[in-house]
């Protein structure tokens, strides 16, 4: 299918990063985000593949014991697992590799072919678009897994992670997160948008290609529901007070004009770092250009420091928590929660009986000790591989 002809390139950041909208052969959306200093031409090849129809939208079932909704997405069983570089599905297409992205790129975002949520969306104004339909608890409750799942490719290179890209590219990815957060938040039935990166085989990654994902949920996630309960009990100033307390304490690992990173007071994981904007913003779409510029630097320094902690790549989940679309926008602050099960050079923390079964966590490393180690690792990474 040819690219969308009527959509001209638009500047995602005026005069800098450029956004180019296209369509894949099966109708999925593909968006290129070109670096401010890109060397790529503006034209992109169309997707000439012949593809099967997209799988049907999955179905959610409710766990009556917790009230949680579970998406049963059987199509995900068919996804590619650790392909060779020559068949990387996130690399630019070649005659030998009919990948998902037709042309060379800086950053590319496209709809997942086998999503956990979507591709169907409820009709605007319909009963299925009403979030209240998922309220309550009952036996054998089902609902369509409405929403959208997107893949964010950080680079055309076969191997790497966010920390391996350069500063200009990091800024482009952040711009893509902001753009997609705004777009996905406007979709009918979407209640929360979640950008994240899984890194490393120990986390369950199935592709070595540097990439992340964005999930758009039809409900407020269980973790955010617990946060809302805490805010409702503590008060709307929870994040401001939390940040002020951490800034005055011993666990800060990075601090800038717009962002602060720290090991939290009650860290669950052996490596756990939270990164908050110093001024309140609910999600990436609300961040300023100055906040995005500084984040491109601080986030790279943080990730490279995490790798320097033990001298080689560390598995992690980089989870960007954002406020729901329709509630607590003034009290839930955008925040990164970076977690890793790595508790030593050759040791991992496994979630066994207490954590996995009961949700009762036991920490392995005192947060103050880990903060001191991370500060030293970040200083080492800054010296060896400056941003």
UniProtKB/TrEMBL annotation:
Pfam family, one: GalP_UDP_transf
Galactose-1-phosphate uridyl transferase N-terminal domain boundaries: 100-220
Biased composition (Basic and acidic residues): 44-55
Pathway note: Carbohydrate metabolism; galactose metabolism
GO molecular function, one term: nucleotidyltransferase activity
Catalytic activity: alpha-D-galactose 1-phosphate + UDP-alpha-D-glucose = alpha-D-glucose 1-phosphate + UDP-alpha-D-galactose
Annotated region described as Disordered, given as residue ranges: 35-60
Cofactor needs: Zn(2+)
Keywords noted in UniProt: Carbohydrate metabolism, Galactose metabolism, Metal-binding, Nucleotidyltransferase, Transferase, Zinc
Domain Galactose-1-phosphate uridyl transferase C-terminal span(s) in chain numbering: 247-375
Domain of life: Bacteria
Enzyme Commission no: 2.7.7.12
Similarity remark: Belongs to the galactose-1-phosphate uridylyltransferase type 1 family.
This protein's name: Galactose-1-phosphate uridylyltransferase
Encoding gene per record: galT
């Amino acid at each position: 299918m040819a690219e969308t002809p009527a959509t001209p390139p638009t500047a995602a950041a005026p005069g800098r990063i450029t956004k180019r909208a296209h369509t894949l052969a099966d109708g999925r959306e593909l968006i290129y985000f070109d670096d401010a200093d890109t060397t790529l031409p503006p034209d992109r090849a169309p997707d000439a593949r012949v593809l099967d129809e997209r799988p049907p939208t999955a179905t959610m079932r409710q766990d009556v014991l917790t009230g949680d909704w579970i998406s049963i997405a059987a199509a995900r069983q068919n996804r590619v697992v650790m392909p060779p570089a020559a068949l990387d599905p996130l690399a630019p297409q070649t005659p030998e590799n009919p990948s998902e992205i037709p042309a060379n790129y800086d950053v590319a975002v496209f709809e997942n072919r086998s999503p956990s949520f979507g591709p169907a969306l409820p009709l605007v104004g319909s009963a299925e678009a009403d979030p209240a339909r998922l309220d309550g608890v009952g036996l054998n409750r089902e609902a369509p897994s409405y929403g959208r799942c997107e893949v964010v490719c950080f680079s055309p290179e076969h191997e790497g992670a966010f920390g391996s890209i350069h500063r200009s590219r990091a800024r482009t990815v952040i711009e893509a997160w902001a753009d997609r957060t705004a777009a996905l938040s406007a979709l009918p039935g979407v209640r929360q948008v979640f950008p994240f990166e899984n890194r490393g085989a120990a986390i369950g990654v199935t592709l070595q290609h540097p990439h992340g994902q964005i999930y758009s949920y039809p409900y407020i996630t269980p973790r955010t529901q617990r946060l809302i309960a805490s805010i409702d009990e503590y008060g709307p100033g929870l994040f401001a007070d939390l940040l002020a307390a951490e800034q005055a304490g011993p666990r800060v690992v990075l601090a800038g004009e717009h962002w602060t990173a720290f090991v939290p007071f009650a860290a669950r994981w052996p490596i756990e770092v939270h990164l908050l904007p110093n001024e309140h913003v609910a999600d990436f779409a609300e961040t300023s250009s100055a906040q995005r510029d500084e984040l491109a630097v601080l986030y790279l320094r943080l990730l490279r420091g995490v790798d320097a902690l033990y001298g080689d790549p560390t598995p992690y989940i980089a989870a960007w928590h954002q406020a729901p679309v329709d509630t607590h926008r003034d009290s839930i602050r955008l925040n990164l929660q970076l977690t890793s099960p790595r508790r030593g050079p050759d040791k991992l923390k496994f979630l066994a009986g207490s954590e996995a079964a009961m949700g009762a966590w036991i920490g392995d490393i005192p947060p103050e000790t880990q903060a001191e180690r991370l500060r030293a690792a970040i200083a080492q990474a800054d010296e060896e591989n400056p941003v």
